[in-house]
Amino acid sequence: MQSQCSYVYVLYSKILNKFYIGYTENLKERLIEHKSGSTYTTYRMRGFKLVYYESCINKKDATAREKQLKTGYGRQYLRNRLKNYLNSPGC
């Protein structure tokens, strides 16, 4: 039995200067849900963009990585990883 890949993804709102970190098994579908406003956690976030994602072999690895990125260290990692993007005027 083959396991389905899962994705850890990061949305960024320049207006709020905030990250939203989540995981899903279907990244395209999940982004549509976020953009349509049907997702409770991000329906108030306007102008967000997908700025980062990772593919994981299984759901357990994805949830562990999501948890790690939600820590202070993980958010700092994202800010360092996306430094050029976040500091660009057209972001």
Automatic annotation (TrEMBL):
PANTHER family with a match to the protein in the record: UPF0213 PROTEIN YHBQ (PTHR34477:SF1)
Family: Belongs to the UPF0213 family.
The organism's taxonomic lineage, starting at the top: Bacteria, Candidatus Falkowiibacteriota
Matching Pfam families: GIY-YIG (PF01541)
Domain GIY-YIG stretches: 4-79
InterPro entries: GIY-YIG_endonuc (IPR000305), GIY-YIG_endonuc_sf (IPR035901), UPF0213_domain (IPR050190)
Full protein name: Excinuclease ABC subunit C
